[in-house]
Amino acid sequence: MIPHLIADARKIVIKFGSNILAGQDGRINPAFLHEFAQGAAGFIQAGKQVVIVSSGAQVAGLSTMEKWSRKKDLHYKQALCAVGQVELMDVWRRAFGAHDLRIGQILLTQDDFGDPLRTLNMRNTLFTLVDEGIVPIINENDTVAVEEIKIGDNDTLAAQSAVLWSADLLILLSDIDGLYNKNPKEYSDAELVNEVRDITQVRGMISMGGTNNFGTGGIATKLDAAQRVVSYGIPMILAHGGKPKVLEALAAGTQRGTAFLT
Ligand code: ADP
């Protein structure tokens, strides 16, 4: 099913969780981003359009400003994201630059999705960037997004962006192979759910555990994201982003994942 979803989609939104952007040492892993950019470039050469939603500003910030790692103060966290966002985009720029592709940065807050004029502007900018062959990279604007106005997790941001851009497919890349009947990090006998046709029903059948090191939303926000996009007729794939050549493998059917169908 997953290879079919990818083959049929022209406009694809792909979201990265923080966990897979960081290597074992907790720093951004450029080799991984480079390999992913190669896969995305392959999609673009095949006539597809790609929009990326990338977490990781805080992780990238910590790589640069190690001495701030213990600061709990919100302003330091936001300052860390301001530093890290530049680092993150620098890695993405190099990764796509190796394939002669340019990137464009879009930073959004929850407020932007509630305001019709801003929503229209975002939509127009997204369409223009993509039409010009540029790869937009979206993240939450952590510098202005204090708790009250935070989207809070990039699963929701990715789903909102997919709807805004009228995408054909949303791919969430996390550090697990997909949706399991229980948290695979806690239960070794957890079973992967290959296909979901009814999200409400599946909610009653699985148990959800917590998040990971840098993760914010856990599986709950991924299910919410699926519910949101599916209600707009956009299918979603949840898969492990840390596997070798993930986009190629998903397209070829050699990597498993969960398909949320419309
Ligand atoms: P990301 O940063 O990729 O968004 P999160 O840490 O927020 O990742 O969410 C993914 C985590 O959700 C997994 O690593 C897993 O431990 C946890 N999880 C809890 N319950 C489940 C479940 N039923 N199926 C899959 N993952 C689950």
Helix and strand arrangement:
Layout (H helix, E strand, L loop, with lengths): L1 H7 L2 E6 L1 H4 L8 H16 L3 E6 L2 H8 L9 H24 L5 E6 L1 H5 L1 H16 L3 E6 L13 H11 L4 E6 L20 E2 L2 H7 L12 H14 L4 E5 L5 H7 L5 E3 L2
Parallel strand pairs: 1-2, 1-5, 2-4, 3-4, 5-7, 6-8
Antiparallel strand pairs: 7-8
Helix pairs in contact: 3-5, 4-5, 8-10
Bound molecules: adenosine-5'-diphosphate.
Task: Provide a brief overview of the structure.
The protein is an alpha/beta fold. The protein has helices spanning 2-8, 18-21, 30-45, 57-64, 74-97, 110-114, 116-131, 154-164, 199-205, 218-231, 246-252; strands spanning 11-16, 49-54, 103-108, 135-140, 169-174, 195-196, 236-240, 258-260.
N→C terminal distance: 12 Å
**Beta strands, count:** 8
Order of helices and strands, N to C? HEHHEHHEHHEHEEHHEHE
Structural class: alpha/beta
What bound compounds does this protein have? adenosine-5'-diphosphate
Strand arrangement across the biggest beta sheet: 3-4-2-1-5-7-8-6
User: Would you identify the regions where 5 or more consecutive residues have pLDDT less than 50?
Assistant: none
CATH architecture classification name: 3-Layer(aba) Sandwich
**Overall body shape:** globular
How much helix is in the residues? 40-55%
User: Any idea what the CATH superfamily is called?
Assistant: Acetylglutamate kinase-like
What would you report as the Rg, rounded to the nearest angstrom? 17 Å
Major sheet description: 8 strands, mixed
The name CATH uses for the topology is Carbamate kinase
Mean pLDDT: 91
Number of helical segments with 4 or more residues: 11
